[in-house]
Amino acid sequence: MFALRAYARSDAARLVYEGAPSPGLGPHDVLVRVHASGVSPGELDWPGAWLDHDGTPRMPPIVPGHEISGVVEAVGPDATGFAVADEVFGYTDVRRDGGDAEYVAVRADAGELAPKPASLTHVEASAVPLSALTAWQALFDHGDLQPGQAVLVHGAAGGVGTFAVQFARWRGARVVATSSERDRSFVSELGADVVIDYRGTRFEDAVPDVDLVLDTVGGETWSRSWDVIRPGGRLVSIAVPRPPERDDGDGRLAIWFVVRPDVGQLVEIGRLLDAGLVRSIVSDVLPLARGAEAYGPHARRSGPGKVVLAVAGG
Ligand SMILES: NC(=O)c1ccc[n+]([C@@H]2O[C@H](COP(=O)([O-])OP(=O)(O)OC[C@H]3O[C@@H](n4cnc5c(N)ncnc54)[C@H](OP(=O)(O)O)[C@@H]3O)[C@@H](O)[C@H]2O)c1
């Protein structure tokens, strides 16, 4: 098969489109013919993607791309719940080769795959699983966001941020968001009540205190966010590199987490998409052969949302 393979951590220049062995089908696996793969531009920096399950370093090359949409091609002898020709989407194990390839092997019993939302194309569906699960878990599992509360979403025009704004709005929260000036009106249309251009305005001067901050940026953005949290509120970060946890004993908490597969949440998110309550935002579609352009700090992106790699017809 053909795949995009990474030869070095944090180095998009060493992503190569080339022939690669097809993934082996374990007894509990399904083999998915990938139609489209969503890109997380920072994935080559993720420490977990460079480790095996036993914590030892993975030997490059590795195949990135852990949110996919495609069709089940084969089912392992001990795999249950899926059949050949099922249309699926999912967030696949970052410690195995991913979906920037014609085929990906996924454990059937790990909660990583769900039926593709029927109303979405493969391209649209592939922009959902990892980003939407991260946003969902940040707001609801770790942030405990309640209707009527206020949330600040940093990086609101990004892969995770576009879902976070929509989910928070759907839950009935007041949404304050940061984005670049270019994306401000788009983020407003998605449902943010207030959108702050992060380059032009210091958000802490413009934001009333909030119950929750979702930090997708880290660094200085993370530290400045602490001061806009109400007593009892939370600063939930997903940023890479990982900021510290913080608890000053005044009721505020800063935590960081890594998204986990959750098929129940994926099915619920699929229902919201099929009901038209939430949208998948795709900024660009590139052929797999040009996938390297979508990775790294200077990745190509012409607008809000995610870059998707079209693999088998999209
Ligand atoms: N811990 C986890 O489980 C987990 C899961 C998923 C993702 N992540 C990480 O979370 C981060 C976000 O992921 P993503 O997929 O949403 O990335 P993304 O699609 O690249 O989006 C990042 C967004 O942040 C904006 N941005 C950059 N600097 C900013 C600042 N100072 N203030 C406000 N916004 C800013 C960017 O806007 P401009 O391009 O206009 O500047 C962009 O729209 C990445 O580091 C990713 O690796 C972690």
UniProtKB/TrEMBL annotation:
GO terms for molecular function: oxidoreductase activity; zinc ion binding. PROSITE patterns: ADH_ZINC, QOR_ZETA_CRYSTAL. SUPFAM superfamilies: GroES-like, NAD(P)-binding Rossmann-fold domains. It comes from Agromyces mariniharenae. Keywords: Oxidoreductase. The keyword RNA-binding does not apply. This is NADP-dependent oxidoreductase. Gene3D superfamilies: Medium-chain alcohol dehydrogenases, catalytic domain, NAD(P)-binding Rossmann-like Domain. PANTHER family: ALCOHOL DEHYDROGENASE RELATED, RETICULON-4-INTERACTING PROTEIN 1, MITOCHONDRIAL. The lineage of its organism: Bacteria, Bacillati, Actinomycetota, Actinomycetes, Micrococcales. Residues 10-309 form the Enoyl reductase (ER) domain.
